[in-house]
Amino acid sequence: MKQKKGNGKGWQNLIHLLCMTVFAGAAIWLVGYGIFTLWQDIRARKIQENLQAVMEGENASVQFGIQYDKNGLPVAGIDAFFADLFQGIPMMEHRPEPEIIPKYQSLYEMNHDLTGWLSIEGTVIDYPVMQTPEDENYYLNLDFYRQPSKNGCLILDTDSEPGTGTKDQGYAGGKAPSTNLIIHGHTMKSGDMFGNLKLYADEEYGKEHSIISFDSLYEERGYELIAVFYSQVYFEKDQVFKYYKFFQADTEEEFQDWYGNIKEMSLYDTGVEAEFGDEFITLSCCSYQVEDGRFVVVGKRIK
Prior knowledge:
Largest sheet: 8 strands, mixed, barrel
Number of helices: 5
CATH superfamily of the largest domain: Sortase
Shape: globular
Structural class: alpha+beta
Oligomer: single chain
CATH class of the largest domain: Mainly Beta
Radius of gyration: 30 Å
Strand content: 15-25%
CATH architecture of the largest domain: Beta Barrel
CATH topology of the largest domain: Sortase, Chain: A
């Protein structure tokens, strides 16, 4: 039997592609290096001219050096020329580290898993909120001091980004929070934790306790009640709305899908509306109307 000949053409194409890639990369590097070299050359000449003028006892016509405006950009000499040339290219900028709110500083030093504080006036809800990205259930049966407790702690979902820094400073030096922060808590018979959260099923109660406060470590935040509903945890393959899967709305379509569903499921109209770009908080606890049932309270950020 004759052996099949190798497909030499395929190898030739691959080698040709690699050569073209290397050539393009080299060309880009050479252009960049050429511009940088040109900048260095012109700058050196200007410096030399200035030095010569000073040496000869003349007032230098160009006090060459790096002169900056209030924004840190060069305003004179060849530096300004190249600043214009490369305008739009990001520059390194020093930004101060966000600072933890003083009242949370000591708590954070005691336990670095602390990510915020949740409270609702007129209710028992006034607790620290923990987050452990490596194990979301770590505080399910542990208290703030990491001691066994059936109450556990309030837990921020690992897919929720609590945010670092403050909104009024554009989260400079930090990170903006995700669109939706989901906090889980036990439905304790004692009423502790989220044991009385289902009182929100009553419209009058909901409107009397419509403001939800959730502070990150860096800023105080307030949310207004926007929806209250029953739901459940579904199988992964179930093609149904899963409120617990929504964390970030990068598009109007993603937001509208979530928003339309929670408003339709809400037990009553809270009178509060929202739009793409708003931020939200979702409080979720176990409920027993169905297997793996959940009771959910959602608020829209107002400060």
